[in-house]
Write a structure and sequence with these properties.
The complex is a heterodimer of chains A (about 575) and B (about 140).
Chain A lengths: L30 E6 L2 E6 L2 H18 L1 H18 L1 H20 L18 H12 L1 H21 L22 H16 L1 H20 L11 H4 L6 H37 L10 E2 L2 E2 L12 H48 L2 H22 L8 H28 L6 H34 L3 H4 L5 H7 L4 H31 L8 H20 L3 H11 L1 H29 L4
Antiparallel strand pairs in A: 1-2, 3-4
Chain B lengths: L3 E5 L9 H14 L2 E9 L9 H18 L5 E8 L2 H16 L3 E6 L10 H8 L3 E6 L1
Parallel strand pairs in B: 1-2, 1-4, 2-3, 4-5
Helix pairs in contact in B: 3-4
The chains are: A mainly alpha (about 575), B alpha/beta (about 140).
Chain lengths: ~575, ~140
């Protein structure tokens, strides 16, 4: 007999009718178990070894031949975003339409985890986790800077170079000299990059993984979603390659972001709390020189960055050791709370009425400009399409295996409709609000008082410049720095869990030292790349280039989801009692 | 002396549990105690089962097999689903002790020199007020 009513974690037993895929593959059958000294391991062969060695080889390559690597990767990056911009834009539009269709179609009633499954997490914890993993840090980085950039380039108007091509970076036809319209166009372009499209990309990957894992009984790794197309071959090399690529994109995506995040935090700390003068080359934080003007000839000290990455990695380590509930979820909720407080504060003490106006105005502008902004063909605003949109799409897509898999991990028990509404519509609205408040405040500071600090500040300092104009700047800037750091921790710990699961062949209960390995490895890779000249930037170009194959994968995933959902709904229907 | 013995098992490594299982069966027979086999899984498909439902069935079958093997009259199984089983195991076992009302825990122990972040048996002993017997395989 089984005590089904007794359940230590309070999760009811699953799961009602569902339609599992019959396969002879046993999860973990290709795994190698053993121990290195006192550390136990349970890893997938060959995914673990190949991923680890490939990462090490790439780091070695960029360090040994920095110039060649930099040139190669940036050429690859411009080729991908320049040549395939139409493809990225089309795929983006396709997945948004696909997700919207799932909300209204009858298959939206399918529940992840079986017809009677109940959600693993409540709305707040769930939402906090998917937001913190997916976008948090970008919002800190670009919340002020992106609306401002589009606004100023739009205001500047169209400029045509000698070759007849546009040299300005404004979206669409710009809005030369028209401040009100420049605000609208700037906000619409920002929301286009942060709203429905990125979240639809994440939603498709997450839905595919959740469906094939919870309803079809396949391991929680990227390859499982390809079962309808590849059949049993997903357990062989085609599947290995998919998983290795996913590990690769995740690890380098995290390491590069970790590097840039550390740079932003170091800049913020030095400028706000450091001593000395940038022009004299004496600026330092706790005795570590940083953020000095180039002409002063004083190089930044790597020590501050190393210290920050060590702290971020150490906190992430504690978080992965405490697990999904005790670590990742709590930090994500803490982060959400801090972010909401900062948002409400800026909203309250900033130009409140203007910002609320900007919010609704931006939504309207988004609706109005969306068809033109998302049009993949015949665009004249080449710089904007290739340098901004295409870059973002490749970026979101290269992050989608990681974020998608993490969202899948915590989304069991939701219906497809509920899932899409919560992963697509609500985060999009939150992004609109965030951008309106942070970007809107900065723009209003410029329009109302002529303050040009934000416009002139480097990217990583724009947020602090904006906060500096508001009351209690000392406190809010500190909250800003803490948020940057904690958002990195929440990306780093969830990323480590994802990589660990993929490299353990979909096992979520692999020995804990393995997560410690990946978390530490990721910090070490970030440190090494950060200390080498241009290492991070060139690898980021490479990671973004992996967005191209994954864009093809996204389209395939839509097909797989449709195939999977149809059999699922049929199973539910046939199991329902005849009325 | 004991009325309800809880036996945590890892279905993936049953071969390493033989001595613990034998000890539990011996004690159960001696005291006429009930034995409940407890195991923890995640909601994702794993090496043992592809859903928590199937996992519970496998654990139940394992319990039935043990009952027959050791001729135990009163045997039950209790499958627990955790969000992050690799980390949540200790808490889940403690909770199971309370939920089941067990008064003795018999469990296999890992090899002492092998490095683990937590020591499951020790943790259960220090966080609950029941007797714990660790059986070295």
């Amino acid at each position: 007999m089984t005590d089904t009513d007794l359940n230590a974690q309070g999760i009811p037993e699953p799961s009602g009718s569902h339609h599992p895929i019959e396969t002879d593959y046993d999860i973990g059958q290709n795994n190698v178990e053993g121990s290195v000294g006192p550390f136990g391991f349970d890893i997938h062969n060959p995914v673990f070894m190949v991923s680890g060695l490939a990462v090490a080889a790439f780091v070695f390559f960029t360090l040994a031949l920095p110039e060649q690597a930099g040139a190669l990767f940036s050429a690859m990056f411009s080729f991908v975003t320049g040549t395939f911009d139409w493809f990225f834009l089309s795929v983006g539009n396709l997945v948004v339409l696909f997700c919207l269709a799932l909300i209204v179609l009858p298959v939206g009633s399918v529940r992840l985890g079986g017809a009677d499954a109940t959600p693993d997490y409540g709305y707040i914890g769930w939402f906090a986790m998917l937001f913190a993993a997916g976008m948090g840090i970008g919002l800190m980085f670009y919340g002020v800077s992106e609306p401002m950039s589009h606004f100023s380039s739009s205001l500047g108007g169209v400029a045509i170079g000698e070759d007849g091509l546009r040299t300005d970076w404004a979206p669409l036809g710009a809005a030369e000299g028209n401040e009100a319209e420049a605000v609208r166009l700037g906000m619409a372009a920002t929301i286009y990059h942060w709203g429905l499209h990125p979240w639809a990309i994440y939603a498709v990957v997450a839905l595919a993984l959740a469906l094939f894992s919870y309803n079809k009984g396949l391991p929680l790794t990227i390859r499982s979603a390809f079962y309808p197309l590849l059949g049993e071959r997903v357990w062989g090399w085609p599947g290995h390659v998919i998983d290795i690529l996913a590990v690769f994109a995740t690890l380098f995506g995290l390491a590069t972001s970790l590097g840039f995040g550390a740079t932003q935090a170091a800049n913020g700390l030095t400028v706000l709390y450091g001593s000395g003068v940038a022009e004299e080359g004496t600026r330092a934080f706790l005795g570590m020189p940083f953020a000095n003007a180039e002409e002063s000839g004083i190089a930044d000290s790597g020590a501050l960055l190393v210290l920050l990455i060590t702290i971020i990695t150490a906190v992430a380590l504690v978080s992965v050791l405490r697990g999904l509930d005790g670590g990742v979820k709590r930090l994500s909720e803490l982060n959400m709370l801090l972010a909401v407080i900062l948002l409400l504060f800026v909203l309250a003490v900033g130009p409140t009425a203007d910002v609320i106006g900007t919010f609704f105005n931006s939504l309207g502008a988004y609706a109005e400009y969306l068809p033109a902004l998302s049009n993949p063909f015949g665009r004249e605003d080449t710089n904007f399409v290739q340098g901004w949109t295409s870059f973002y799409w490749a970026w979101w897509i290269s992050w989608s295996p990681f974020v998608g898999m993490f969202i899948a991990r915590v989304s069991r028990g939701r219906t497809v409709r509920e899932f899409i509404v919560c992963v697509l519509l609500i985060p999009s609205l939150v992004c609109v609000l965030w951008m309106s408040v942070f970007g809107g405040t900065a723009i209003q500071q410029f329009l109302n008082t002529g303050f040009e600090g934000v416009v002139n500040a480097p990217l990583e300092l724009k947020l602090f410049e904006m906060l500096g104009q508001l009351p209690l700047a000392g406190i809010t800037s500190l909250v800003g720095i803490i948020l940057v750091i904690v958002f990195f921790v929440t990306s780093s710990d969830s990323g480590s869990l994802v990589i660990d699961t993929i490299t353990a062949g979909g096992k979520i209960d692999a020995p804990v030292p393995q997560r410690v390995f990946w978390c530490t490895f990721e910090g070490a890779v970030a440190m090494v790349l950060l200390l080498s000249a241009g290492g991070l930037a060139s690898l980021q170009s490479m990671v973004i280039s992996t967005g191209l194959p994954f864009a093809v994968v996204l389209v395939a995933l839509c097909v797989c989801i449709v195939m999977g959902l149809r059999t699922e709904r049929a199973a539910v229907k046939s199991a329902a009692p005849a009325e | 002396m004991f009325t309800h013995i809880m036996v945590p098992v890892d279905l993936a490594h049953v071969d390493k549990l033989k001595r613990a299982l034998g000890a539990a069966a011996g004690l159960a027979t001696q005291f006429g105690a009930r034995v409940t086999f407890v195991s923890v899984t995640g909601s994702q498909p794993g090496g043992i089962a592809r859903s928590p439902e199937e996992f519970a069935q496998k654990l139940e079958a394992f319990a039935a097999e043990q009952a027959e093997l050791h001729n135990m009259p009163d045997v039950a199984s209790h499958a627990v689903t955790a969000h992050d089983p690799a980390v949540d195991l200790d808490g889940a076992l403690e909770q199971a002790v309370h939920d089941l009302g067990a008064d003795l825990v018999v469990m296999g122990s890992h090899i002492p020199r092998r490095f683990e972040f937590t020591n499951h048996g020790g943790r259960v002993a220090s966080h609950t007020d029941v007797s714990v017997m660790l059986v070295r395989g």
